[in-house]
Amino acid sequence: MVRSKWSLIGWRLFVRPHLMAFALFATAANAAEPVATAFRSNDRPAYDRFVSPAQMETLAAQGAIIIDVRLAEDFASNPQLIPGAERRDPEQISRWADALPKNRSIVLYCVKGAWVSQKAASILRRRNLDVYSLSGGLVAWTAAKQSPIPPG
């Protein structure tokens, strides 16, 4: 098939540059934040900013935001929150992270304070937020005789 001179010019001047720009934008957007499926990857960064249940209570009294970042299946098996906490899906962190205020401390917790809250904290820390992970998670909170309450 022979293409006309004008169709080749149109391709070179209009279509190809726009396709290239879209490809570059899509690549940059995906590289900036892990996608939901990547949250469960074996990439489990060590995080070094922990608070005890008592320290979390003190931070909460000072206006810190407490966020439950348990995975959906963990939350479904025990849908109770620490008093004052809000539930956020860690696999959707790129959707809700920008809404968090930069002028308040944030404490994240998961079931045991292991990789879920630490990975979420690492992602939020890269966004220059003041983030802590509850050492021992919900298990430590319950052991400290602080009773979780039903959501609502």
How would you portray this structure in words?
- There is one protein chain.
- The protein is an alpha/beta fold and 152 residues long.
- Helices cover 45% and strands 11% of the residues.
- Strands 1-5-4-2-3 form a five-stranded parallel sheet.
- Helix 6 (115-125) links the parallel strand 4 (106-109) and strand 5 (131-134).
- The longest helix is centred in the N-terminal third of the chain and has 28 residues, at 5-32.
- The N and C termini lie far apart (66 Å).
Which structural class matches the secondary elements?
Answer: alpha/beta
Low-confidence stretches: 18-35
Which bin fits the share of residues in helices?
40-55%
Largest sheet: 5 strands, parallel
Mean pLDDT: 79
Strand fraction equals 5-15%
Rg over CA atoms: 22 Å
SSE string, helices as H and strands as E: HHEHEHEHEHEH
What is the strand arrangement across the widest sheet? 1-5-4-2-3
3D shape = globular
Number of strands: 5
Query: Could you give the distance between the termini?
Result: 66 Å
The number of helical segments is 7
